[in-house]
Amino acid sequence: MKKSTAIRARLLGIAVLGGIAGPAHAAETLPGLDAASDAARLAQAERPAPADPAAQSATPVTLSQASTLTAPLSPPAQVSAPTSWNDTYIGYRLGTNFYYPGVRTATGAPAKVTQNIGFLTTTGGFRYGSYAFNVDYLVSNMANPEAGPTNQYGYPTPGSGGAQEVYSVGRVSLSASRIFNRQFSYGFIRDVGLTLGYEFGTKNDAYAERARMFVAGATIEFAVPRGFWNMTLGVRTESNHDGITNVDVHFNPAVHFESSWLYPFRLGPVPLVFKGFASVTGPKGKDGFGVRTTTEFLTRAYLMADVGSFVGHPRTIYAGIGYEYWHNMYGTPASEQPGTTQTSVPMFVAELHF
After folding, report:
1. How many CB atoms lie under 10 A from the CB of residue 153?
2. Region Disordered: which residues (predicted)?
3. Among 25, 38, 165, 338, who pairs with 16 as Cys (CB 3.0-4.6 Å)?
4. Structural domain boundaries of the chain?
């Protein structure tokens, strides 16, 4: 039976790193002029600025929980943030409505997959920009089984447990304002720069993913009043392994767009943050089955409460809900694998910041 599966593009949630990541894991993973899955920083945006300018300059800056796919290239104009800062945290996501191309039940229906996802994210700033790195560990239930022994036809049979996957997303954003020591802001643009990144993944199911991706592009950071919002447009290269046809696949370079955002606000006494990422990757040639890929779209967003603030530890413990939507997953056209190339998943998510 022919299965069609192109490789996955994760972006995190970095930081959402997740993003850029994004994802899709991405991520939950990424930084600075944005670019890729959770990247970098609430920066004092949750706190009203003191009326006294002297008091404002003396107020310590907390750079916490700012990643999505990337981190902000530079701090907001009203925040005198330090050149170097870091936010490192671990997290957990749970979703029960994932689908993967070619993954079906014994009757041929699309298999609904439950995944428990743990992640580690670090994001921060340095002299010339910002960075975000994320690693996801994804454990599926038996709806997406690990690969077992091969049968008489040479195809892997289902194993005794759910598939496990490790996926990492990283982004480094270089700020033009920091490098040239002058402002590159104009109107609603706060800064511009260059983002470079990678996505590596491996999975022990029948497809035996070995994803290797590299991203490069120009980034714009917008002058939003709180938090950050970045966009990157560039190119992405991909290679992967197809365990069903047992071939290594080298895709064509593809046009790639990604955006990350983070917006802190309050609803009554509850401090909240809305963060996420979105990415679009153009057609990248044929996959391991000879199927021509199409444009794919991935987004993941979170609405999280600062629950640590209620026990005397603000910006430390976050919990809330998330949502992931992935259209034409891995670039696989819906006509090739009906019902399995699109995922729409509500999720529970929690983070512990160090």
Report:
1. 5
2. 39-63
3. 38
4. 53-353
Q: How far apart are CA 344 and CA 206, in angstroms?
A: 23
pLDDT digits (tens, 9 = 90+) for 258-274: 999 999 999 999 999 99
Distance CA 33, CA 230 (A): 5
Structure tokens at 329: 């997953």
Confidence check: pLDDT of 53 > 70:
no
For the chain, state the CA radius of gyration.
20
CA distance 124 to 133: 9
Q: Which tens digits make up the pLDDT trace of 112-153?
A: 999 999 999 999 999 999 999 999 999 999 999 998 787 767
pTM of the model: 0.79
Pick from 144, 89, 88: which is nearest to 116 by CA? 144
Beta bridge partners of 280: 257, 297
Among 166, 150, 182, smallest CA distance to 8 is for 166
Closest CA to 14 of 169, 189, 155, 125: 169
CATH number of 53-353: 2.40.230.20
Terminal Cα-to-Cα distance of the chain (whole angstroms): 49
